[in-house]
Amino acid sequence: MLVVMKRGASQTEIDAVVARIEEFGITPVPLPGAERMAIGTFGSTSRAAAEAVESLPGVAEVVPVSRPFKLASREVIPEDTVVHVGPVPLGGASALAVIAGPCSIESRDQILATARAVRAAGATALRGGAFKPRSSPYTFRGLGVDGLELLAEARAETGLAIVTEVLTPGDVDAVARTADCLQIGARNMQNYALLDAVGEQPKPVLLKRGMSATIEEFLLSAEYMLARGNRNVILCERGIRTFEKYTRNTFDVSALPLLKRLTHLPVLADPSHGTGKWYLVAPVGLSAVAAGADGLLIEVHPSPDHALSDGFQSLTFENFAALMSKVAAVASAVGRCVGGPIRA
Amino acid sequence: MLVVMKRGASQTEIDAVVARIEEFGITPVPLPGAERMAIGTFGSTSRAAAEAVESLPGVAEVVPVSRPFKLASREVIPEDTVVHVGPVPLGGASALAVIAGPCSIESRDQILATARAVRAAGATALRGGAFKPRSSPYTFRGLGVDGLELLAEARAETGLAIVTEVLTPGDVDAVARTADCLQIGARNMQNYALLDAVGEQPKPVLLKRGMSATIEEFLLSAEYMLARGNRNVILCERGIRTFEKYTRNTFDVSALPLLKRLTHLPVLADPSHGTGKWYLVAPVGLSAVAAGADGLLIEVHPSPDHALSDGFQSLTFENFAALMSKVAAVASAVGRCVGGPIRA
Amino acid sequence: MLVVMKRGASQTEIDAVVARIEEFGITPVPLPGAERMAIGTFGSTSRAAAEAVESLPGVAEVVPVSRPFKLASREVIPEDTVVHVGPVPLGGASALAVIAGPCSIESRDQILATARAVRAAGATALRGGAFKPRSSPYTFRGLGVDGLELLAEARAETGLAIVTEVLTPGDVDAVARTADCLQIGARNMQNYALLDAVGEQPKPVLLKRGMSATIEEFLLSAEYMLARGNRNVILCERGIRTFEKYTRNTFDVSALPLLKRLTHLPVLADPSHGTGKWYLVAPVGLSAVAAGADGLLIEVHPSPDHALSDGFQSLTFENFAALMSKVAAVASAVGRCVGGPIRA
Amino acid sequence: MLVVMKRGASQTEIDAVVARIEEFGITPVPLPGAERMAIGTFGSTSRAAAEAVESLPGVAEVVPVSRPFKLASREVIPEDTVVHVGPVPLGGASALAVIAGPCSIESRDQILATARAVRAAGATALRGGAFKPRSSPYTFRGLGVDGLELLAEARAETGLAIVTEVLTPGDVDAVARTADCLQIGARNMQNYALLDAVGEQPKPVLLKRGMSATIEEFLLSAEYMLARGNRNVILCERGIRTFEKYTRNTFDVSALPLLKRLTHLPVLADPSHGTGKWYLVAPVGLSAVAAGADGLLIEVHPSPDHALSDGFQSLTFENFAALMSKVAAVASAVGRCVGGPIRA
C-alpha cells in the first residue's frame, strides 16, 4: 500500500504511521515528495492494516496496491476457465452460448413453445424464472416449484440445458436438483448468505452484476463462491444504473473486455435487462458479441405484450431468430462461432 | 395511466391499444394532441395492463399515474407512524432518536465500553453488528450468535435498546429473540425473501436504502414488510452511489424531507455510511437533523484506528459526545428535541 | 401534457388547474382515476404551460407528451441526413467514416506522420486538437492557430478532411476557415453561446455528448444549431460518467441505436474517450460498429507514452491498423462497409 | 506518484519504467510487494510524467500523490479567503450571506418587487438572470442588457449587491460593469475560455459546481481563475446528477464540509437548483447551514406559478421570509449568524 500524508503532516504523525505499519509486520518505506510525504511498503499488506492506518492523524489517503480478489484474478489463474452448463461449454475458446427464454415461467404451453422456438433458432440453453424477484409485493412472483418442473419437462423434450434464478439459501437445494445452472440476480449480487450457499454446492452459478456494482465488487462476489469451493462461476453484465431515462439501465459494454482481462471466468451479456427496450436488444446484443462476450442471455416470449413481466424487453420468436443469424455473422467477424446443436 | 403514441402512429395501431386497454376492463380516453395521440384512462389500472400496452406497435411510452406503493404512502395513511424500539419511540412528534455503536461487535470489552459511553453522551439506543455483510470473503464477518449475547449484556447493563443487522431468513428468529429492532442493510434492500421473513415477525425493522435505490424502490421494499403484516418499519437514508470519489457515498439529504412528505414512516439518517469519513459525520449528521430526520445512526468505536471494520468512518467517544451537544442545539432550532434518559 | 393531481386534491384545486390550462388556450380533459384525478389536454401545449401548472396547489406531477426537440427528430424529418465532411459523406447509407488522429497537435512531424499512417490504414478523416480544453490550468493547452496551419498542411499532403475542436465563439471564424468540420467537445455541449455561433456558419459540426447529458439534452443541443440554420450536425457518443472507476467513462453503447431511432442525424462513436484505456478502444470500437454507429473517432499517436495528453487512451499506428481490418469485418457482418479512398 | 506494475511484469518492463521516470528528472524507488512490484518516487512529479508512464508495458496503474490544485488548496493557503460582493463579506468568520431573487429577470415590476421583498426579509444580495442558459432553443433566454439595467435600478433602490450570470467571454465586460459578482453557471464550469475571461477581471466570481463535476474538477476550475489573477472566487454546490428521479438533482450536502476542509475559498449552497422542488428548498437550505455553508442562493419569485423559468423551484415572498427566520435559528445553533442590514 501507499500511505499519502497531508501536506504539513508533522514528524510525530509520520512516525506514528510508520510505527503502526510496523505493528502489522510490514516494512514502511518513507518517500518524501516535493509537497508531501508518502510512505510505501515492502511485502504483503492486509486490508486491516490499510484501514487501521487510514484513520491516523495526518494521513490524507491510503492507496491499496494488491487487488482484493485472488481466485477470480487472471493474474493468479492465467488460463481461461471453461464452465459446463449441462453439455454446453462456456468460456475460453468455446462457441458462443446463447441462453434464451421468458423472464417468468407462466404456463406449460408458454415455456414449452418458447423452448422449442429458441432451440430451433439455435439457442444453446433455456432460461426461465420460477422464483421471481419483483420490486413490488403486489406483482406476479413466479410459479415456484411448479415452474421448476415445467423447466425439467422442457429440457427433457428439447435437450436444452436450463438456467434459473434462486433467491434465498433455503431454496438452493430444490433449485440445484433441477437446474443445470443457478442464476444469482443483480439484486442479490451482495447477498452473502446466498453466495455462500451456492458456493457450497457443485452446480454452475451465473452471477449477474449488481445495478450499481463496480467491477471490483462484482469480482469480489464471484470470489465468495470460488472461496467456498465452487469454481464454476459465470459472470453476466446486465446494465448499470445511471441518470439516463430513455433506457432502463445503461449497458456497460466496456465491462466485457475489461472482465476478460481481469479474470479467467466466462463473461456473458444480457442486453434484455441491459437496455429494457425490446428494440435495443438486437443492436446491443451484437455489440456485446463484437466486444468479446462469451455468450448472450436473451428474454424471449411467445407474445411479449401478454407477458406477466418484462414484456417490453422480450423478443418475439421471429425477432429472436433474426437476431441469431446476425449473432453468427458478428461472431464470425471477431473470430468466434455460435454454439451448434447440443445433442446428436 | 397515460399511453403516448408515436408521432405518425396509424389508426389501426391506436385502435389496437384502445382494444387492449378495454381487455383489462379499463376505459380508454383518446386525447389527440398537436403532434401525437395520447390515450388516458378512467378508473383503476394495473401494472400488468401498463406493461401489456407498452410493447404494442405505435406506442411511444406508458406513463403510470397511480403510485405503486400503498401502505407506505402518506396519501393512504396520513398520520405519522410512531415505532417503538424497546422503550424508545421513533417518528411523529417523538424526540430525536440517536442509535450509536460500533460497526462490528469485536469483544465484550469493546461493546460494553461503547454502550456506556454512548449512553452517557445521550444516545437512545445501541447498534452493533453481529452478522456482518462484507464485500470480500477474506475480511472479518462478525461474531455471530456470540455477538448477540454481548449485545444483550450491554442492554441489561445500560438499558439501551439494541439494533442489529440480520442477513438471511434463516437467522431471523435468532436475531429477533435478542434484538429490539432488526436492521436490513443496504445490500439487502431488495432481498425479498428476507423482507418477507422480517415482515412476518413483530419486532420493528430498520430498513436501509440501497446504494442505488430510487426513493420509489425504497418505499416498495418497505411495502413488502407492511404487506406481510409488520407495520413497525423505520426507513434510513445512508448515502447513494455517485461518481464522486472523495466520499464513500453521496448522502442524499433531500431524501429526508421527501420521504417525510411521501410516507408516514419514521425516517433516520446514517451519516457514517453516508459519507465514509469520520470528519464528515458531524456536519452531515447535523444537516440531517436540520432537514427533518427523526433520528441518527452513528458509528462509534473506542479506538477507530484499531477497529476491525469501518474505522475510518467511526467517531471516538469524545467526538460523539461533542456531536451530541450540537445535535441538541440544531434540533432545538428546528423545533425538535433529542431523546432524554430512557429509564427512570 | 398530463397533469396528475395529488390523492385527495380538492375540487377547488382541480378547478384552478383546469382554469390555468385554459388561460394558455389549451383544452383540459379531466380523467378521474381510482386513486386520483388526472387532467389530459387536447392540442398543442407549451413548456411554459407545463411549468406554470406544475407549481399549482394539489398538483403531483406534470408529464409532457410532446418531445421538446423538433428539427432533430426523426418524427419530423424521417429520412437520414447525410453530412459531408470535406469529401466524406456521413450518415444514411454512407460507408462508415473513421476519423483518426492525435488528441493534441504537438509538432509538424507528429501530425504529418500520424496523418500518413491513419490514411494508409484506411481512415477517412484526420482529427487533431489545436485548442485543447484541459481540466487543469497547468497542463498543455494546444498550439492554437499554429496547430490549424499544421492540420491544413496534413490535409494538403494526404487529402484527409480535417476535424478540430473550437472552444469559444471568438475562435469560430478562424477554425471554420481551416477545418472541414468543427468539433464541440463534451464540456461545451451546453455552451449555448458557442452552439449559436457554430449554428450560424455553414461548416459541419461534430457535437459530443456531455459527460452527464441525457439523450434528450444531447438532442436539444443539436436543436440549437439546427434552429440557427446549420443542418450539418453530427452526433458523437463518448461515454458518460458513472460510479465505475476502472474506466474513465462508461461508453453508452445503447445510445447509438437509440439515437438512430430518435433522430435522422449521423451518429459516431468515440471509444478512446469513451473508455480512457487504449486496450479497450478496439473491442469497444467494434461494439459500436455492431450496434449501428455511422463511424468512429479514434485517438492515434506515433508514441502514446510520449504524448502530451491522453497517451493512455491513444493507439499506436500498428494497433490502429489492426483495428481497421477488424472494423471492416464487423461492418460487413452488419451490412455496412468502411469508407474507401477519398480521392482518385 | 506511485507506479503499480502488473503481477508478473517482467524485469525488462520494470527497468523501462524506472528509465522513463528518470527521463523526467525524478528519482524512482522500487517497492517490491508480496504480489507485485510498485515504484514510488522521491520529489516533485508532473502530470506529464504520470501520463507517460501510464501507457508503458507492464504498468497496471499510476497513482498521483500531489493534488493537482495549488492556489485553491487550503494546504497552500491555510487562512480562509473572505470575498466582498459589493459591501457584503463572504467566507471566514463572516455572517452568512443570503443571495435571493428570481431565476430570470422578467420585468421592471417583477425584479423591483422581489428586491424589496427579499431585502425586507433579510437577504444580503440580489440575484437575477439577464442572460439565461436554457436547454431548449425555444424557451425564454432572458432580457439581456436590459435586464442588467433593471438590476442596477434595483440595487440603487434597495442597496442590495447584485449577482448575475455571464455566459460567454464576449459579455464579460458588459456584465462586469454592472454586477457586483459574476456567476458562472453549472453548464459552464469547464468552459475554460470563459473562466480565463472572468479570471482576468477583478469582480468576484461565483462558480457553480457542474452537474457531474467531481470535487477535484470543481477546484481545478476555481484554480483557472485564481491562476489568472482573480482571487475573489466563491464556490457554490448546486446538486449533482444521479439516478434519482423525484428530485431534479441530488444536493451533495457533504460537499460543503469537504470543500471547507480542502480549500480556503467561501462555499455557498443553492438548494433551489439543488432540489428542483420548492417544497424541498427550506429543509435542504437549513441542512446546508447546519453543515457549514457560508451562505445560500435562493430563487424567489412574486408569483412562482407565472414565472417564465424555474417556477416550480422558486419560493414565494412569504415562504422566503419564513425560511429566513429558520435560517437564523439554525445558524445560531452552529455558532454563526446571518448577515444584518447592509448599509446604515
Question: What does this protein structure show overall?
Answer:
- Four copies of one chain form a homotetramer.
- Chain A is 35% helix and 18% strand.
- The first copy, chain A, is of the alpha/beta class.
- An eight-stranded parallel β-barrel of chain A has the order 7-8-9-10-11-12-13-14, surrounded by seven helices.
- In chain A, helix 3 runs parallel beside helix 4, helix 6 (192-199) crosses helix 7 and helix 10 runs parallel beside helix 11 (317-333).
- The longest helix of chain A has 17 residues, at 317-333.
- The N and C termini of chain A lie far apart (55 Å).
- In chain A, 64% of the residues are buried.
- The model of chain A has no long low-confidence stretch (mean pLDDT 91).
- At the A-B interface, helix 2, helix 6 and helix 7 of A face helix 2, helix 6 and helix 7 of B.
Low-confidence stretches of chain A: none
Looking at how many chains there are and whether they match, the oligomeric state comes to: homotetramer
Main sheet: strand order of chain A? 7-8-9-10-11-12-13-14
Amount of helix of chain A? 25-40%
The tally of strands of chain A reads 14
Backbone CA Rg of chain A: 23 Å
Distance between the termini of chain A: 55 Å
- The overall pLDDT average of chain A reads 91
Largest sheet of chain A: 8 strands, parallel, barrel
Which structural category fits the helices and strands of chain A? alpha/beta
Overall spatial form of chain A: elongated
Order of helices and strands of chain A: EHEEHEEEEHEHEHEHEHEHEHHEH
